[in-house]
Amino acid sequence: MEYRRMGKTGLQLSVLSFGSWVTFHKQIETNTADTLMGIAYDNGVNFFDNAEVYALGESEKMMGRVLAGKQWDRTSYVLSSKVFFGWRGKQNKPNQTGLSRKHITEACHEALQRLQTSYLDIFFCHRPDKNVPIEEVVWSMNLLIQQGKILYWGTSEWSATEIMEAHLHAQRLHLIGPAVEQPEYNLFQRQKIECDYLQLFNTVGLGTTVWSPLASGLLTGKYNNGIPEQSRLAIQGFEWLKDQKLQQDKLDKVRSLQDVADELNVSLTNLSLAWVISNPHVTTAILGATKGEQLEENLNSLNVLPLLSTEVKAKIDSIVRTKPVLPEF
Amino acid sequence: MEYRRMGKTGLQLSVLSFGSWVTFHKQIETNTADTLMGIAYDNGVNFFDNAEVYALGESEKMMGRVLAGKQWDRTSYVLSSKVFFGWRGKQNKPNQTGLSRKHITEACHEALQRLQTSYLDIFFCHRPDKNVPIEEVVWSMNLLIQQGKILYWGTSEWSATEIMEAHLHAQRLHLIGPAVEQPEYNLFQRQKIECDYLQLFNTVGLGTTVWSPLASGLLTGKYNNGIPEQSRLAIQGFEWLKDQKLQQDKLDKVRSLQDVADELNVSLTNLSLAWVISNPHVTTAILGATKGEQLEENLNSLNVLPLLSTEVKAKIDSIVRTKPVLPEF
Amino acid sequence: MEYRRMGKTGLQLSVLSFGSWVTFHKQIETNTADTLMGIAYDNGVNFFDNAEVYALGESEKMMGRVLAGKQWDRTSYVLSSKVFFGWRGKQNKPNQTGLSRKHITEACHEALQRLQTSYLDIFFCHRPDKNVPIEEVVWSMNLLIQQGKILYWGTSEWSATEIMEAHLHAQRLHLIGPAVEQPEYNLFQRQKIECDYLQLFNTVGLGTTVWSPLASGLLTGKYNNGIPEQSRLAIQGFEWLKDQKLQQDKLDKVRSLQDVADELNVSLTNLSLAWVISNPHVTTAILGATKGEQLEENLNSLNVLPLLSTEVKAKIDSIVRTKPVLPEF
Amino acid sequence: MEYRRMGKTGLQLSVLSFGSWVTFHKQIETNTADTLMGIAYDNGVNFFDNAEVYALGESEKMMGRVLAGKQWDRTSYVLSSKVFFGWRGKQNKPNQTGLSRKHITEACHEALQRLQTSYLDIFFCHRPDKNVPIEEVVWSMNLLIQQGKILYWGTSEWSATEIMEAHLHAQRLHLIGPAVEQPEYNLFQRQKIECDYLQLFNTVGLGTTVWSPLASGLLTGKYNNGIPEQSRLAIQGFEWLKDQKLQQDKLDKVRSLQDVADELNVSLTNLSLAWVISNPHVTTAILGATKGEQLEENLNSLNVLPLLSTEVKAKIDSIVRTKPVLPEF
């Protein structure tokens, strides 16, 4: 396994990591989660990603049960949660979502209970909250750090300007700024990592823990011949992915990428994942496999990384045509 | 129910809320309090207001008992207390009142015990304390925030200058300033909300949790024909309200307001409450009903809110003649 | 009882207070201490002064036992301790005395245990420590405040320059500076209160809790005819007082003061104590009586205070000739 | 015993101290450790030095057992640990070594457990970590100080520039900077103490707790006739010392130093240790004896200190020829 520093911090994350999103509780049972986390851990994965909203709290409870059973040394892995959406779904009341100091504080306490741990390594703001001053968010995260409940804090799907403003308040108030962002990043979603965040990478420093590195499975090639019933795209709640992703155009590109993979004698999945982590601004790509063999295949992408020569990447760019154009000035 | 952000903060309060002042322990028993809080909560009220001095601590104890029984999720409501007057009445010793760091700290510990909770969402300074530097107050509240015992702090009946000075110290010392003020506000008391605090609303931001929106019941019209025995005005300790409020002049105005209400086909109570919350600078108006039907009627004011057209408001102003004159410069 | 704000803070101390110095454990047993503290408390005394070094910790233990028995509300009195000399006497090892962060922290923990309380209201640096940077002292006291173990901190027998330097560091680092000084003050020791500290009173603010208001009993007149065996001056460890205080010159002055007292028809003790608290820069004068009647007489000094006219004070000054000369510029 | 302030701080360390490095668990059993620590403590040694990596945590466990048995007053000694290398040796995973906030925090918690104490007096960064911003290190140490888990923090084998940068961040952020450095210092290793750190000594202040004052035993003269089997140099893991130290050149110098010792009628060990602590920038020299008589002889070096006249030191310099040349500007 390769490990990378999370931005400017001293924290090291395995370049491939494992998240409970979509799969825990919704698709897999505790014993499968146990098997998958065992495979991940044994292969050097040290970052396990969560959020209060995943399966409305059930994902964290499942991961908490698995970790309690494993009895791995707490120092050997990095545990995260995220605050914003709440875990009560349609029963969410005001202050049970968002980034008020009340919800940030209460969400942290609740996540610690569900995960059966006394501190989170990383606590993410799952989305920006336009209704809460970023200064309040910075204060709230720092209070949790001072109280020993979290070690680092980050953002997810925040704009570069919002992240920069958080650092502005942190520097002015002598507090600790956000160290990491969790954006979507894959061959079809490149704007933030490859363009928007560049100034952040070069100034305050920013780690990235990217989600959906396979574009919800699209980049595995498995939808080339239709949507299988057990796949993520067929599960309730992800119908939105259909419209957005399954356009003919994207499927055509995926088929062309398959040709590149075939030439390299690797799977399209491995090619796609290797491409994501070939970007040095990516700290880790979060995997969400539901089966052991699938997870092991994903982890194999590390071996494909050396094959991504300048020529291969150029060929890929010419197929997907998603490379962001940088501003002239 | 409508929810509003408390000033610039991320905390959301129901625009109508419920307080233990006057009523708890003095007028109602625990089982009535239980019924009333149930009605409030079921109607979306999420802010329950208290103070150490209300019924000399007994109000908080009663609310603590009710909340312990209800077992509502602690994250689903916002709980406050206030420090200043102490809860021992004439037995108050030095340092058992006021805003010294000693009393602020000890009053917080005592309120947490009475309310049977581990943190307050909002802790108010119930009055300004001319004998304590505002810097000491800011420090004391921030120490409680750092220790996880309170989440936000505010003031009650402070002047605009005092609130601004608190922010001055907070900004200079890199601490958290007061987020909310609890002033009296109703058709007969408009100076602070409509004039004095305007600059605060526009600069540092300030939520308001207004008390006595019905001018101690005067604006319900129930005193138009004399003071009933069970009413608040007849209860020991509120004689001061008689002189101040029950002047003939005010009663005349109340009767004219009744005509406006009649024209709109709504109750005077609903008109008066709707008028209070029609001011966007009001975060919430605190209700203090003693009977279920009364509380339900009060909560109905939300439905009257859309009827308050510019014309209606102008007519009301011409009757009460209490609109503050803004300074020319 | 009269109460005064401790300098600029909100804390109020009774103008006459009670300390365990010299008397507790050395001269009186727990049951006498219990009686004396009861008299003091019943007469409105709310400040009980201690130090780790008094009777090498035994004074604090005795006061802790008395307070545990009394079950007075913890908010009704102000409890202090002091750090510097340690409590092991000749067995003191390095770091068991002085103002290092180690000793300040450990001395606080130990005082809390001896006094059977969870926080001190005031924690004094019993002397300046020339070997420790004042910045380290300021930090250490602030860490204890942040941890909820003390509420205010002060100094004892520090020079005005040292106190000012402590405020310099506090202001630069955004910390809380010392709020109170405990100097000796009586008709024979006036330099600090009446001259050195004037600038502090006028700028950063400074309360004073003065010790030895009766100059170790000299100003009671009881040594006019020799030293009684049970008196403080005859007790082991206070021989130093003999040389310094019992000069013929001072005894002559005391006899002349007795004439002033006789003219006013008050005791010399009351005149001397009233003179001390007639200075508005004195927050409180600490009493150390060993007998009930003695303490009650001391407390009676409050009634003598109104007799101290400008003329009486001028006569006193002309007798003692100890009034400091202020610098010309 | 002589005690010295640790740099500018108020903490006093015995000029000769005792460490668990190399010896605890590897060379000696708990009962021998108990005997040695008893001798040290009875002779006035008050600083006991540890690190997570010493015997991979076993040294700290042994010292924790000894201290638990001794029941010395916790305030009578100074306990340290160090974070950087981890304690799992080749099993160390990412984040189980280095100076990330995660490892600093977790290493502190683990050291407290092994040493059976609730706070460390000093927590050292055992090495600089080029991959972690020094700002993160400063923050992490200050968070532990604020949480009451450590009292002072320091560095070991950091460059002068790195230490100065730590103070830069501490001053900018209003935090507490590193107070002490633990470098190697002996007659053969003089560059840092006698040249590199001079500016630090003169500005921010810096204590030093030097290790290997006898150059791993070389300066005892015991290797003059070959390496004995039970010596440190023969123990597994210290082979690197052989190449570096046992050059013919050094042995020649050691033999010439033996002549100086003979002239003074003292042992070479005592001469070498006395020379180390004759430098006033040295706060303490850490001893690592394995036998009682050896430790007692080492502690005797204090008596040799007065013999180190200017002439003797000049003679020593002319033999070792290791005195650093200071920069001209």
Automatic annotation (TrEMBL), chains A, B, C, D:
Keyword NADP appears in the UniProt entry: yes
Domain NADP-dependent oxidoreductase: 16-320
UniProt entry keywords in alphabetical sequence: NADP, Oxidoreductase
Transmembrane regions listed in the UniProt entry: none
Pfam families, per database record: Aldo_ket_red (PF00248)
InterPro entries cross-referenced by the UniProt entry: K_chnl_volt-dep_bsu_KCNAB-rel, NAD(P)_OxRdtase_dom_sf, NADP_OxRdtase_dom
Family: Belongs to the shaker potassium channel beta subunit family.
PANTHER family: HYPERKINETIC, ISOFORM M
Descriptive protein name: Aldo/keto reductase
Species, as recorded: Deminuibacter soli
